Amino acid sequence: MFQALSDPHRRGMVERLSRGPASVKELAGPIHLALPSALKHLKVLEEGGIVLSEKVGRVRTYRMQQDALRLIGDWVRQRETALNQAFDRLAQAMAELPEEEGQ
To answer: Looking at domain 8-64, which CATH architecture does it have?
Structure first.
């Protein structure tokens, strides 16, 4: 997921899709991408589990994968918890150090 979101064009597409489904043309136009380039970016997002696509006739429509970004949020919260615990242990260890003379 992080690699899929590492590109600014793909992040722009995700931003647009967060407001609702869109065709490849609707996604490519605002960021000035050729359709083949847009399709490559969308393939990366789909393989990353962030978007889903559906083709009806000649139009391929993309939409956000439900709860895709929740996984990233969960991961970030876990890292924040671990980091806070490490800082708490550091603060405790520093509080237990003997004070140096002359301070």
So the answer is: Orthogonal Bundle (1.10)
Distance CA 82, CA 36 (A): 42
CA-wise closest residue to 17 among 50, 57, 43: 50
Kindly report, residue by residue over 1-41, the tens digit of the pLDDT: 889 999 999 999 999 999 999 999 999 998 899 999 999 99
Distance CA 103, CA 93 (A): 19
Distance CA 89, CA 56 (A): 56
Token duo for residue 65:
């994968």
Q: Please report, for the chain, the start and end positions of each structural domain, with discontinuous segments joined by +.
A: 8-64
At a CB cut-off of 8 Å and minimum separation 6, what does 2 contact?
Answer: 72
